[in-house]
Amino acid sequence: MYKILIIEDDKDINNMLKQLLETNHYQVLQAFSGTEGVLVHNGNVSLILLDLMLPGKNGEEILTELLNKYQVPIIVMSAIHEVDKKVDLFELGADDYITKPFDNKELLARIKLALKHQNGKENKSIISFKDILINKLDYTVTCNGKLLNLTKQEFELLKTLLENPTRVFTKSMLFELVWKDEFVDDNTLNVHISKIRNKLKECNQEEDYIETVWSIGYKMKN
Amino acid sequence: MYKILIIEDDKDINNMLKQLLETNHYQVLQAFSGTEGVLVHNGNVSLILLDLMLPGKNGEEILTELLNKYQVPIIVMSAIHEVDKKVDLFELGADDYITKPFDNKELLARIKLALKHQNGKENKSIISFKDILINKLDYTVTCNGKLLNLTKQEFELLKTLLENPTRVFTKSMLFELVWKDEFVDDNTLNVHISKIRNKLKECNQEEDYIETVWSIGYKMKN
DNA sequence: AAAAGTGTTAAAAAAGTCTTAACCCAATTC
DNA sequence: GAATTGGGTTAAGACTTTTTTAACACTTTT
Predict the structure, then answer these.
(1) Which of A147, B74, B123, B220 is deepest in the core (most CB within 10 A)?
(2) Are the beta carbons of A172 and B117 separated by less than 8 Å?
(3) Do B90 and B172 have their domain in common?
(4) Which of residues 160-219 of A touch strand C (CB under 7 A)?
């Protein structure tokens, strides 16, 4: 059973949505402002429907606030058709965008899709692998009990690998995931991997953590 | 580097899309009909842009055909606004739907999003043949339960043969599929086949996997 | 038996990786 | 506002692994 949080200031629309979702076997939480939405969120929500035009804080702020705190797909609803707006929201991490007025069936389809995407994804805020512990909320990493001091890129890279520790990440995937659209030299990746390996080795000489997959990319070892 | 397949019958739009994607650092494959799209797909495509209104087979058929064969996100483009259509397509497995005319920036954003979704997925693209298991995502191959260590070319070659295990691959086909445009000596293929056979034999002495078809090429045995 | 095609091996060539150090840029400090 | 600091990137060279070439033995076909 999925729990969906509706953040929408218009009481009628909010209630209508609640009813729609409940008849389609979702559990529903309601909030009527952005700040309330952040408060109501109990960490146990599968998906958020976020109306953009909220009183008080603007939608973008709420979106980033929610995404920083929880890893939940967010579908943004809005009457605004402007493309730059949409692109911005995707950039910020929205999972989908639907313009009002929308058809209920389409909304349901997009909700289903977003939940499908979410499945199989690691979304806990603390990940562990061997004796590595990585906390996505406060950007700390410990290994063998010792805190290691990773830079932002190093952290992103290690986090990415640890989110699917069995999987091989091709170099282009890592560039996509860590460097987004920036185009940097191939070697940059090597250098960062090298630095991470050194820092990990400082904490635990015995273990080998990152494995090179020749001419493909990297993965976590074993 | 992601490869995107465009299936769109309107030559101008197709070319425009190609240019747009290429300037945004994607590799592009073009097809101008659904059937061509299915043919052109070489199993190495990261995402498909599918126009709905195609001559010949309809979009839905193409969509299911492509999804059955490959696990690739498909973004459907169409001028049709009808909601039931959209819902149907989502139901069939489309990853997103964008109505024409669309803004280039929005398209790029949705492509990025679809690729992001795909990356986090534990998409089980595993092929099996006799006691060989090959995982296209992890680049791992096991035979008789033992993991074998193939190099990239060896992996590509075996993967190619296993994707159609009943079919005979001529040498020029294999060169085309594994070496693309590079021109290498005929013997290179023999050497690689020999190495693969050895590695397979190490794992299972009893079986013979790759069959030589004299003066033609190779195929999987039996 | 000759010709054409294939298999295997070892060595050369190419491709990919690792590491160190230097450079650049932006933020912070003095 | 110049100097310092720190992260991020690039460049260079040493190193490793993979791929290709080449030579020769072997097999199949004619």
Answers:
(1) B74
(2) no
(3) no
(4) 171, 186-187, 190-191, 193-194, 197-198, 212-217
* Protein CA A198 to sugar C1' C18 (Å): 12
Residue in the block written with tokens 């200031």: A9
Check whether residue B16 and residue B82 sit in a common domain: yes
pLDDT tops 60 at residue B120: no
Q: Is the pLDDT of residue B172 over 60?
A: yes
Q: What percent of chain A has pLDDT over 90?
A: 41
Q: Average pLDDT for residues B58-76, to the nearest whole number?
A: 82
Q: What is the CATH number of the domain that holds A216?
A: 1.10.10.10
- Predicted pLDDT of residue B17: 94
Mean pLDDT on A65-90: 82
Tokens found for residue B74? 């498909």
Q: Verify that B8 and B114 share a domain, yes or no.
A: yes
CA dist A147 → A42, A127, A132, A153, B30 (Å): 29, 15, 10, 17, 50
Helix H or strand E segment including A74: strand A74-78
Local structure of A212: helix, strand or coil: strand
Domain boundary among A118, A141, A159: A118
Chain A window 138-167: residues with CB closer than 7 Å to nucleic chain C are: none
C-alpha–C-alpha distance, residues B153 and B160, integer Å: 10
Range of the domain at A139: 126-220
Counting the structural domains of chain A, the total is 2
- At which of A88, A118, A148 does a domain end? A118
Chain A segment 191-220 residues within 8 A of B by beta carbon are 213-216, 219
Over range B101-108, report the average pLDDT: 89
Q: Choose the mutation target among A47, A74, A80, A103 for the interface with B, i.e. most B CBs under 10 Å.
A: A103
- Of A39-43, B40-44, B174-178, give the range with the top mean pLDDT: B174-178
pLDDT of residue A124: 64
**CB of A87 within 8 Å of any CB in chain B?**
yes
Q: In the predicted model, is pLDDT for residue B127 greater than 90?
A: no
Residue nearest to nucleotide D17 (CA to C1'): A214
Distance CA A16, CA A22 (A): 10
A88 and A175: one domain?
no
Residue A168 is given by DSSP the state: P
Closest CA in chain A for residue B85: A106
Give the pLDDT of residue B168.
93
Question: Any idea which of A61-65, A145-149, A198-202 has the lowest mean pLDDT?
Answer: A61-65
